[in-house]
Amino acid sequence: MSDARTFRTWLATAVEEARAGLAEGGIPIGAALYGADGTLLGRGHNRRVQDGDPSTHAETAAFRAAGRQRTYRGTTMVTTLSPCWYCSGLVRQFGISRVVVGEAETFHGGHDWLAEHGVEIVVLDDAECVAMMRRFIAERPELWNEDIGA
After folding, report:
1. Looking at CB atoms within 10 Å, which of 27, 44, 61, 64 has the fewest?
2. Element (H, E) at 103
3. How far apart are the first and last CA of the chain?
4. Is position 17 annotated as part of the catalytic site?
5. pTM > 0.90
6. pLDDT (tens digit, 9 = 90+) per residue, 62-118?
7. What is the DSSP letter of 142?
8. Whole-angstrom distance, CA of residue 72 vs CA of residue 92
9. CA nearest 122: which of 48, 34, 45, 41?
10. Catalytic residue among 17, 59, 103, 142
């Protein structure tokens, strides 16, 4: 369950979530958490704008949607954008084994740090993810800067 085709299929779930967030007037970042057996455990998108909650990042939404798990070893967090420090901390805190990143061109988050601490990182350099974020950043720079803490 760890080949490039599987990762692309999983990324499609996160991209659907990112599109949903954008359609709701939010930031187009989506994520999904998959179990070691490839089962979709949870999915979500950034809802900072929609909920007025600065902690509702895509990764945290997917993590919360997955509910309580006995362990997170062997799980994979798939995200359309390199995870920020907050979301990288979530990955470390709960022992998520792998992070699949749609793109790290528009934002280079904490994935290098995660790799240094034993988390498997797969960066897909997905053109659709890059294009979606570039469009959003150009159209809503104030919201983007708020999201990344600039």
Report:
1. 64
2. strand 98-103
3. 37
4. no
5. yes
6. 999 999 999 999 999 999 999 999 999 999 999 999 999 999 999 999 999 999 999
7. H
8. 10
9. 34
10. 59
Pairs from 118-125 (Cβ < 8 Å, separation ≥ 24): 119/91, 119/92, 122/7, 122/98, 123/82, 124/7, 124/8, 124/11, 124/100
The two three-digit tokens of residue 54, written as one number? 């600065």
Amino acid occupying residue 134? R
Structure tokens at 142: 């104030």
Distance between CA atoms of residues 73 and 36, nearest Å:
8
Q: For residues 129 and 8, give the distance between their C-alpha atoms in angstroms, rounded to a whole number.
A: 12
73/34 Cα distance (integer angstroms): 11
